[in-house]
Amino acid sequence: MPTPFGAMLEAHALARPAHPALAMPGADIGYPELIRRVRRCAAQLAREGCRTPGSVGVAVDDDLGNIVASLALLALGVPQIALPASDPMPMRRQLARRLSLAHVVVDDARAGVDGIDTIVLAPVAVDGSAPAPPVAPVLVDPDAPAMYATSSGTTGVPKLFAHSQRTVGSRASQIALAQGFAPDERVMVTMAVPTHLGKMARLNALWCGATAILPGTPSPSAPSLIELCESLRVTYLQMTVLQARNLLLGFDGTRRLPPFTRVFLGAARMPPGFPRAFESRVGGRVFDRYGTTEVNLIATTWPAGDEGVPDAVGRPAPGTLVEIVGDDGATCPPETIGEIRVRSDGMASGYLDDPVATARHFRGGWFYPGDVGAVTRDGVLRYLGRKDDMMILNGINIFPAEIERVLEEHPAVGTAAAFPIPSSIYGDIPVAAVELNGRVPADAPMLVAYSRERLGVRAPRKIVVVDALPRNAAGKVVKRALAEMLALRRSGG
């Protein structure tokens, strides 16, 4: 029988009562105090009707209040979904309708969703100064939905799936093992707490008895982020590649990351040489992470780094099986490029109300994220991009990552994005857009010649220099927007 989340908090409180569960600028909250806050919050939510089986949306903007409310719902056994008030209202309404939410928990009544009962957290509900009645652990069905999550959908409608109490715990344990959590780990994540990924990163730390950092601002500047890592003694810093790139660009050299801070990146491909450039200027040790919301962490370069392998995202996480398969579904030998498929005990089993996407991504006990890669003979996973992004030029398969890697090795290029222009004669004509870093002069014709020398027929036929590549909230380049921009330029619009 798996352990309920509340029981894990109780165990940490008994074993290390003085150990901080949460750390914020100017204040620490120990596990006993966190439990008191969770109990008071659970009492209010229960009084106001939060009971199984009805699901609840969490739209609490305050970091501490959001964590406490989510833990309270886990303690009550009530399924929940992150419903950040910063998200567009149509998206929030759609998710609320799809899950038939019974309530939305907020700390500001304006964050509610029309037509759904709103529960406004009372300040006393998250106050840990007074005793609170215990909440009986709820684990009637450990495999029932506990936390819903979303993943991007090709139609613009998010794919929706559930984590159970069992998978919440197993995922947290897997991440701790895969990334070497120490007993006194202090975890800071730059993603906002009200988002699902930002919340889960903190809950993972709490499950493992670590200290979750609440920095007070979702996007601190480079100097303030380094200051937070020093003052809050952050040992584990998780960022997106875009955030790390901006930190590097904004670094003024006056203060480096402390030597005890390890940096884990994800959400986008790292440019060649980025870890070494970051470490030499900003400090810390940089490691890559590759994963999906459906599966959890799939691979990481901790502790060995990229091991000299181009496009490496590391070795599979404990308990995760990774294979490369061909178009016929057969397993490919080492070094062969093919589609990545993954199997893990903590992965989702399908999408809610989307049988087409479920059939596409979940097959035979495997999850197919739609990515292309290869595994070296030594077991290192290489990530080469999305399967849908592969270009076929006159029968030649060209992966955007190979073009991007070559361009980003040029001293003038900061970031590159390769994508196809369709042709009725040739198939996909590879082109690229680049951001220059300003260190050395370069222009598009120079970069075309440079890439042609190194890639031959796989080189982009056209390169466009842009001030900034279009990116989504996770920092990933939106190649569809680039293709539209290039088409507009060609038409003279």
Could you please describe the fold and organization of this structure?
- The protein is of the alpha/beta class.
- 30% of the residues lie in helices and 27% in strands.
- The model has no long low-confidence stretch (mean pLDDT 89).
- The strands form 5 sheets. The protein has a 13-stranded mixed β-sheet. It has a 6-stranded mixed β-sheet with strand order 6-5-3-4-7-8. Strands 24-25-26 form a 3-stranded mixed β-sheet, with helices on both faces.
The proportion of residues in beta strands is 25-35%
Q: Any idea what the shape is?
A: globular
Helical proportion?
25-40%
Unreliable segments (pLDDT under 50, ≥5 consecutive)?
none
Q: What's the end-to-end separation, in Å?
A: 63 Å
Mean pLDDT: 89
- What would you call the structural class? alpha/beta
Q: How would a textbook summarize the main sheet?
A: 13 strands, mixed
Strand order of the largest sheet: 2-1-10-9-11-12-13-14-15-21-20-17-16
Helices, by number, come to 13
Radius of gyration: 23 Å
Number of DSSP E strands:
26
Summarize the structure.
30% of the residues lie in helices and 27% in strands.
What is the topological layout?
Layout: H1 5-15, E1 20-24, E2 27-30, H2 31-47, E3 56-59, H3 63-76, E4 80-82, H4 89-99, E5 103-106, E6 117-120, E7 145-151, E8 159-164, H5 165-178, E9 186-189, H6 196-207, E10 211-213, H7 222-231, E11 236-240, H8 241-249, E12 262-266, H9 274-281, E13 285-292, E14 296-300, E15 312-316, E16 320-325, E17 338-344, H10 355-361, E18 362-363, E19 366-367, E20 371-375, E21 381-386, E22 391-393, E23 396-398, H11 400-408, E24 413-423, E25 427-436, H12 444-455, E26 462-465, H13 479-491
Parallel strand pairs: 1-10, 3-4, 3-5, 4-7, 5-6, 9-10, 9-11, 11-12, 12-13, 25-26
Antiparallel strand pairs: 1-2, 7-8, 13-14, 14-15, 15-21, 16-17, 17-20, 18-19, 20-21, 22-23, 24-25
